[in-house]
Amino acid sequence: MTSGTPLKYVLREMGPAAREFYRRLAEGSLSTTWCSSCDLPFFPPRERCERCGSVLSWRELSRRGTVYAFTQQERGLRFTAPDTIGIVELDQGVRVFGVFEQQFDRLAIGAPAEVILRSDDAGLTLLMFRLRQ
Amino acid sequence: MSAFGVRRAGHPVIVSSGSTVIGRHPGRTPSELGLEALYLALERISLDARVLEGLFLVPHGYARAQAPIRPQRVAEELGLRLRALVEVECGGASSILAFKTACQEIATGRLEVAAVIGAQAERDLFATGMDEGDIDHIRLLASMVGPYVAPYGVFTAVACYALSAQRYMYEHDVEPAAVAELPVKLRTHAGLNPRAEHREPITVSDVLASRVVCPPIHKLEAPPWSDGAACVIVASQAWARRHALDGPVLTGWGESHDSSNFVALERGVTSLPWMREALDEALGRARRSLDDVSVAEVYGAFAASELLTYEQMGLFEPGQAPAAVARGETSLGGRLPINPSGGRLSLGHPPQATPLLELEEIFEQLTGTAGERQVPGASVGLVQAEHGVMNGTAIAVLET
User: Distance, in angstroms, between B34 CA and closest chain A CA?
Assistant: First the structure.
């Protein structure tokens, strides 16, 4: 597969919220949409609050959190297998999906982690999780 | 209340079902397997395809690229002029939703008899290699998991189910050996089912010694990606009477879909309140309680997710399903037999046909034709199916 092609349809089908999320990420800003009336973040980002219907606005997210869940794929479409992927819960309670820098057997649920932004060959900036001491 | 409308007379009846061998069908197409299942269903009631007024189909799999308007090609092959012809798609729930669509047509009185067919045949699709078009189709398939997960190379549901399984085991202190009890019990059921793909008995040690597919999921806690097809024929009660046919009636329907796609980040991958909502709706419409249910088929794509689904439907308290399963409460002869077919793990799992295979099992249970798997006196049956990674569910209540 040539560079970037695995994400051909992912990129083609991205809606405005996803395009904006990745545009901000490329500029070094990990952010998502918040409802200022309910004071609630929503990830994945979307246009309107599912509780009150208000139009949401973008806000920067914490890059610190804890490991929420993780697994390992024998065959991934992208990273060198086996890759460790999973969910980190950020300090505001928002959960995000990403790839772990550490190997599977070094991880534990609840371990402190931080988010590193990593450019990828498809032109997207992705989330990499690194364990904190 | 009733499944859809207000009149009990509008309740559709399942008058027949048919299914192919579940397993491998190299070189055969989903359409031909689907027609085989249809002919078996018609044969069971000694009727000809020309009685059918509607065909309700689903896409024929995932990895196999397909052109639009396949229903028309199936109609052409059958040589049928129809009053309803459609394909319904919502992942693994597709065929139960196609069933709903057919039942609604019956309930409103527009149609009197229709066939619902689901089929899949792609296990050995790439055995002779993949060309550029095949690879491009896999890329398209990968985009299914959406823009926040797909870029990390996740292109099947397995990794997403693994995250849910890990959290489930963590939150309730469930040991791997406790999860492994479920595949063992399902295999015991499958041993009594001639159409099941895997029938030889297994032990907890076998499950735990099987390869780890995606931790914590072992190979024997995962379903085979089977080839196979199933068909159910639904009719109005008046039509069934005219043809001297009987069968279970659809008395309840419930459905609830979360806003999440694959990884329910906001809900936390183990909280699936829509399961309980759908069950409450289905039982409420049927004016039944859980205690009335004699037998159930639950989708259960993986062992831990099946246990989680039992709990989230409200069949057991959170964290209590593994012990209940180990005690035999869900086994044939137990308090509530679940998945007498052998479930997805042992019956086999051609997702596009799976909900119809579940309906077929309940059809046989409620018509007293389930052979060695028969739940004595079964009169109220439940079928649950889902899509994505348990992101939404549909539940049918059937009664004799």
Answer: 30
Q: What share of chain B is helix, strand, coil (3-state, %, to 5)?
A: 40, 20, 40
CATH for A118: 2.40.50.840
Contact B33, B20 (CB under 8 A): yes
B274-319 pLDDT tens trace: 999 999 999 999 999 999 999 999 999 999 999 999 999 999 999 9
Least CA distance to A81: which residue of chain B? Answer: B153
Residues A105 and A128 in one domain: yes
Q: Are residues A95 and A109 in the same domain?
A: yes
pLDDT mean across residues, chain A: 91
Question: Which of these three, A9, A41, A61, is where a domain ends?
Answer: A61
A61, A96, A111 - which closes a domain: A61
Place of tokens 């040539």: A2
What residues 20-49 of chain A have any CB closer than 8 A to a CB of chain B? 21-22, 42-44
Nearest-angstrom CA–CA distance, B34 and B57: 9
pLDDT at B153: 86
- Do A57 and A68 belong together in one domain? no
The verdict on a CB contact (< 8 Å) between B139 and A9 is yes
For residue A77, is pLDDT > 80? no
Q: B145 to each of A7, B247, B255, how far by Cα in Å?
A: 12, 39, 22
Count Cα neighbours of B3 within 13 Å in the Cβ-side half-sphere: 28
A21, A66: one domain = no
Q: Which of B7-16, B110-119, B176-185, B306-315 has the lowest mean pLDDT?
A: B7-16
Buried b (16+ CB within 10 A) or exposed e, A9-32: bbbeebeebbebbbebbeeeebbb
CB within 8 Å: B147 and A69? no
Q: Let me know whether A56 and A102 are in one domain.
A: no
Residues A32 and A75 in one domain: no
Q: Provide the β-strand partners of residue B225.
A: B349
Q: Is the pLDDT of residue B6 over 80?
A: no
3-class SS of residue B159: helix
Domain limits for position A133 = 62-133
Cβ <8 Å between A44 and B146: yes
Residues A30 and A82 in one domain: no
Q: How far is A71 from chain B (nearest CA, A)?
A: 6
Please tell me which of the candidates A1, A7, A44 has its beta carbon nearest to residue B148. Answer: A44
Among A31, A46, A59, which Cα is nearest to A117's?
A31
Per the structure, how many domains does chain A have? 2
Q: What is the pLDDT of residues B337-378, one digit of tens each?
A: 999 999 999 999 999 999 999 999 999 999 999 999 999 999
**Taking CB atoms and an 8 Å cutoff, what residues of chain B touch A13?**
143, 147
Mark whether A68 and A40 lie in a shared domain. no
Best mutation target among A2, A84, A85, A103 (most B Cβ atoms within 10 Å) is A85
Whether pLDDT at A4 is above 60: no
Beta strands in B158-286 (DSSP E): 212-214, 217-218, 228-235, 249-257
